[in-house]
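Hi R.,

Here are the chain sequences for the assembly we discussed:
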Amino acid sequence: MTQTVEPAIIIRGMNKFYGSFQALKNIDLTVEQGERIVICGPSGSGKSTLIRCINHLEAHQSGDIAVLGTPLDNNIANIDEIRREVGMVFQHFNLFPHMTVLENCALAPMLVRKWPRAKAEEMAMQYLEKVKIPDQAEKFPGQLSGGQQQRVAIARSLSMQPKVLLFDEPTSALDPEMISEVLDVMVSLANDGMTMLCVTHEMGFARQVADRVIFMDEGEIIEQNPPEEFFGNPQNERTQQFLSQILGR
Amino acid sequence: MLSAWNNIKLRNAVLQILYVGGFVALIVTLIVMGRTNLQEQGIISGFDFLWKATGWEVSFSLIEFTSRDPYWLVLVVGLLNTLFLGVIGLVLATVIGVIIGMARTSANDLARLLGATYVEIFRNIPLIVQVFFWYAVVTRFPGPRQAINVGDSLFLSSRGLYAPGLNITGLSAFLGIVAFLTGLGVIVWVSSAQQFRRMEPARKSRLRWLILLVAFVVTTVIFWIGRLPDTTLVSMPALKGLNFRGGIRVSTELSAMAISIAIYGGAYIAEIVRGGFKSVGRGQIEAAQSVGLTNWQVFSRIRFPLALRAMLPILANQYVWLIKATTMGIAIGFTDFFMVVSTAINQSGQTLELLGILMGGFLIINFTLAAVLNRINRAIALKGDQLRT
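And here is the predicted structure of the full complex:
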């Protein structure tokens, strides 16, 4: 009998190939529950691929992944189980354009959690209030701005009440003036204690909320440290080079 | 004066009047010339011939028709045959098209290869050649005595396909089919209409089954009421002497036409279906997977509804085209609308009137079809212009 809380995500010796190209090399990563992690690195370094492996949008070829104690293997029931508990927010929002904002949010709780519509919509409205757009509930995604769409996408993920949230460059497709409205929502989620893995170039966000910043290059985790250490005293040459490019120092 | 001509509103009005006036003058001239020419040839134009008896028979009719019946009835026979063939052809072509189109977008290499082969073969051979080919195939089945017997109920022979039928009146058959199709229509309406959008998924599913059950019961009751006296309700085909008695016979001409339209149209519809599914963004599918939807839920809630929206406008075009393609029936002697009109022209000499009726008939069928599909298309169109995929 152990009293310690099990880690949210455990990745051991994971490799991922596209044909003969190795996208991820021998990844080891443990994420505790409630931990907030920011993953950064140059384009093509494998950071998106890494978080897409966690909910099996990409299949890994070797190594082990376990999410909240459930091993990610070829068992469809396990994959479904993990996806129920892990939400994801995409770069291009990926809302369902034929459904209203409210339907986007209530769909999965009704179909997957088998909640009655009234309960699913009530919960969805709560999360739409959390992302500050309850007044847009009856509109369609195409009638909203990019920033509003991304906030709906966050509310859609939250409506499943996930234990882990994955963010795949959530602000990269947004116009500059809309980035802060999305980051504000992400900061408030972080303050609520959500387990988060964010692939992002928003270093201000990393400094403000991250427990750990991970730098990836060419499919490998090069360096990981708390933000003060990561930004103040980067160890690896490639990390230093990346930071000087992105922060303009 | 010159400044008035430079006024854009005035100038447009004058041009518009000249254009419409010229068009009306052209039509009137054509009609007057046509009438004068016909009168010189001794042909009396007009539609009085429609009430004369034809004096000839048709080989395939859905309603009672004899040589003593008038011309207007033979036109109705042809129109019904065209609609009958059109409905069978479009339904089968859609089924084939969806199967082949899905195969072409599947992850399975063999399925993709088979789908591509099918499309390339049947899309690239002219329809008329396929019509002759399938007619040759169905007329080369063995004679009635050696007919291919499928479970003592289906018989394939050179005289046509014999299948179990119902001993009921034509009217009750018609009403029963209409009742059942209405039921299916209501189910589609319940599934897509705004009024039912907010219903619980489980209740909606139960409601759909209930409607299907009601439609089935109503249809059965209509058939039961309309059964012919002193006969069993189900009539099985059986060999009596040199030919089959009982059941229903699907003529070789109708079979050949239905097969051709289904297979040829299926190849085109498969490409439309493939394009529709390809147009659905990978992102939407990944988002649906990431919130935990199962493969079937991703397909039925996201992929299919979005693909359908991309397919519908092109599908309407294809359906209209296939309805017009039924006129190829004249090549193998299927008594469709075109064939009865062409025979009627030979027999009565009322060429312009009958061609007018023929064109009007197809115009009405296809206009109605396109209008219905456009209405559905408008109802389900995606809203807003801020979409990124």
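Chain B touches chain A through 32 residues (CB under 8 Å). The radius of gyration of chain B is 26 Å.

Let me know if anything looks off.

Best,
T.
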